[in-house]
Amino acid sequence: MRKIGISEIEDIATGAALLGAGGGGDPYVGKLVAIGAVQECGPVTLLDPEEVPDDALIIPIAMMGAPTVLAEKAIGGMEYKRLYDMVSKFFGQEIYAFMPMEAGGVNSMLPIAAAARLGLPLVDVDGMGRAFPELQMVTFTIGGIKATPMALTDEKGNSCIFETITNKWTEELARAVTMSCGASVSVSLYPMNGKQMKEFGVHGIVTRSEKLGRAIRTVKDCPDRVPEEAFLEFTEGFKLFKGKISDVLRETRAGFNFGKVVLDGIGEYKGRSAYVEFQNENLTAAVDGRILATTPDLISLVDTETFIPVTTDALKYGKRVLVVGLKCFHLWRTEKGLELVGPRYFGVDTDYIPVEERCKGGN
Amino acid sequence: MRKIGISEIEDIATGAALLGAGGGGDPYVGKLVAIGAVQECGPVTLLDPEEVPDDALIIPIAMMGAPTVLAEKAIGGMEYKRLYDMVSKFFGQEIYAFMPMEAGGVNSMLPIAAAARLGLPLVDVDGMGRAFPELQMVTFTIGGIKATPMALTDEKGNSCIFETITNKWTEELARAVTMSCGASVSVSLYPMNGKQMKEFGVHGIVTRSEKLGRAIRTVKDCPDRVPEEAFLEFTEGFKLFKGKISDVLRETRAGFNFGKVVLDGIGEYKGRSAYVEFQNENLTAAVDGRILATTPDLISLVDTETFIPVTTDALKYGKRVLVVGLKCFHLWRTEKGLELVGPRYFGVDTDYIPVEERCKGGN
């Protein structure tokens, strides 16, 4: 158990944006919401998963929809209280703690804001260890845990609770309501007990985000290290490419941001080219036509000088980026995990091969 | 209090189709559902509104979506029990009785099926006295009663409960989920107590439907009467036109059936022409370009020989129909009522003038 305040939030936001793998929204917007809540209501207690009783009711808090819309619509302030009340009434049980569902610039931050505003603890765990675009794409689905009852509310005060026969149906119905509410709502889904959270959750993800964020902030302060090497070592990242963005193709379809970013090599990659394809999050990275990493491994683009993560929303012509691959959470590499989030689910016609295998022998 | 069984259901379905004003779906499909339930579970107790205690919890049962889809998807059998459980749990109170929300071929029938299957009584009341296309279009909206908590379930077992800030938002969100569930779901909305039901409901609508249905069935059995005259007298209908359908224009937009039926006069109307415009239900009837009736008054087309109502779904070239106007429930003629369901709400650029005024001096 420890407290997280404003300086921790700054680092968590940066680190979670790296784990967002291009998605998860702008960490700046998420940070504003979390810092605002902590300034008003005080710091948040972060619990280790093992500190949570097996029968405690734990609910994840997240936003659903387009993070870019969140920046314009903001959050009304009463959403977390309404979500708490709906889920608590449904189960006839008090809620013990909140948790994040994914790592990303926005959804790592909102649970902190909720915990601050309601005076509840936050658990150091999530259901992805990265960001993914659809709500059934969580480790809890592998564990057979249902997404419902799922509570949803908008900033105006409309709300609903879903119960569905599959997590894919939850996605379908909640997505429809989200679009009707203006493409950005607050949700609580996958309510679970402490035992389930401990068995299937990605432990320590908040702390990992914070450490990654701190590393990014301080990597250039080591006088005896090449910053890029220090960055790769600390993040345990595989260097996939370094280049200048020469083209960005985007398409918004069914509420998702699809696209492709094309890179011209710089430095030791001069004369070579690469591309990264995405659906909210980065799906594949290929260098000279050869795929070097695919979902569910993380593909992140970071600024070559500051190592600040660049989300797909922020991709711009001329920007210089380092493309890194990070190993995903082990459950994603199982057969069930790959059915949910492997390359073929996203329409990418290739088998999943772990990033460390694909990069063997260098690129 | 009285019992309704199969023969009553037959008449109620026919009469409700007349009150459906072109909408409300195919009475044949509705009848099958209600008769099936009564055959299996026994007849239903029909309560007079005055027999219901003021503090009893009463919930309407209806389908939302396209009645034509219902015919293909059918009803799974567990929907009413799920709706009962969801609403009852929400209020922490047993449900005293079901009621219909509108008069129409389908939505007059489903509450009978629900009452039979759950062994609950049905109240002889509804919220329209006819059919309308959108869910905020009920007398209870005039009474300031909220549509939510609204429970919704599909035949597969997906369900949700909405709470919204306005009844228009309920329509918006429930419509989105309905479309995602395949355009036909079972719902319970406007939960209310006995007092509210008595104050704003359309009393005696089930009995009125039954009487109209019986009249249609027996009108030709009076040896000393011209059937058409007897039909108009019994229904208190205004004869607007008689003609042969020469054209039907249809367009499906945003989940509604829009269209226009054009008629060439027959009998005393020979040489004249008329049209009826509709959005699920008939909105306006005009003869030789002069409007003779508009929503919220009822415009119904019936077969010239059998007087069986013809819904907008069943309009076909060459069919001979009598166009009748019926006075709507008095609350629809108030300022608040006309805001909800007057011609201008539906984009018809004319003031509301009661059908009996428009028809003064004959046509």
What does this entry look like structurally?
- The structure is a homodimer of 363-residue chains.
- The first copy, chain A, is globular, with a radius of gyration of 19 Å.
- Chain A has 363 residues and is of the alpha+beta class.
- Chain A is 32% helix and 28% strand.
- In chain A, 53% of the residues are buried.
- Chain A contains 12 helices and 18 strands.
- At the A-B interface, β8 and α7 of A face β8 and α7 of B.
- β8 of chain A pairs antiparallel with β8 of chain B, so a sheet runs across the interface.
Summarize the structure.
Chain A is of the alpha+beta class and 363 residues long.
Quaternary structure state of the chains depicted: homodimer
The biggest beta sheet of chain A is recorded as: 7 strands, antiparallel
Task: Specify the helix fraction band of chain A.
Answer: 25-40%
Distance between the terminal alpha carbons of chain A, to the nearest Å? 43 Å
Tally of DSSP helical segments of chain A: 12
How many E-type strands of chain A? 18
**What class would the helix/strand composition of chain A place it in?**
alpha+beta
Low-confidence stretches of chain A: none
Q: What overall form of chain A do the CA principal axes indicate?
A: globular
**Range of strand content of chain A:** 25-35%
* SSE pattern of chain A: EHHEEHHEHEEHEEHEEHEHHEEEEEEEHH
Neighbour order of strands in the largest sheet of chain A: 16-15-14-13-12-18-17
Integer average pLDDT of chain A: 93
Give the chain pair forming the largest contact, with residue counts. Answer: A-B, 19 and 19 residues
Radius of gyration of chain A: 19 Å
